[in-house]
Amino acid sequence: MQIFEGLHRHPMKFLRTPPNSKFTRLNAHIVEEDGAFTVRVRMLNHLDQQESAWGEEIAATFDMASVMIGSLAEQFSIPQQFISIKIVMRRFSDGTIH
Questions:
Q1: Is residue 56 a contact partner of residue 36, using CB atoms and an 8 Å limit?
Q2: Nearest to 56 by CA among 17, 25, 29
Q3: Which of 47, 41, 39, 40 is nearest to 21 (CA)?
Q4: Rama region for 8: left / alpha / beta (φ>0; ψ in -120 to 50; rest)
Q5: Residue 41's closest CA among 31, 53, 32, 28?
Q6: Which CATH number fits domain 25-91: 1.20.1070, 2.60.40, 3.30.160, 3.90.550?
Q7: Of the candidates 57, 48, 78, the residue with the CA atom closest to the CA atom of residue 11
Q8: Could you give phi then psi for residue 75, rounded to 5 degrees?
Q9: Can you tell me whether residue 68 is helix, strand or coil?
Q10: In this predicted structure, what is the pLDDT of residue 8?
Q11: Which distant-in-sequence residues (6+ apart) come within 8 Å of 55 by Cβ?
């Protein structure tokens, strides 16, 4: 299931799902790669494990990556306590990944 659609044209409405989809959890992973940020998300309904969606998109900035995740949470009314975000950043000063 491809969930990201038209991200560059409509950054606030980039998820395509059936209108009756209900997600209760959002897991996001932001990875800094080659000067951009890869955003991977997985959403699920903890009451119906068959109802889930996932996708990946590239964001030019960390702020845009944050907007993507925030938009999904808002679109599906997922409360903050049910959102998990993992961030992997590269420290250029010593070449390590955090």
A1: no
A2: 29
A3: 47
A4: alpha
A5: 28
A6: 3.30.160
A7: 57
A8: -60, -35
A9: helix
A10: 40
A11: 1, 2, 3, 4, 15, 40, 41
pLDDT at 12: 37
Tokens of 84: 């998990």
Residues of 12-30 as b/e, b for ≥16 C-beta within 10 angstroms? eebbebeeebebbbbbbbb
Amino acid 80: pLDDT = 95
Structure-token match 């409360």, residue found: 79
pLDDT at residue number 5: 40
pLDDT along the chain (98 residues), means of 10: 39 52 93 91 90 90 94 92 93 57
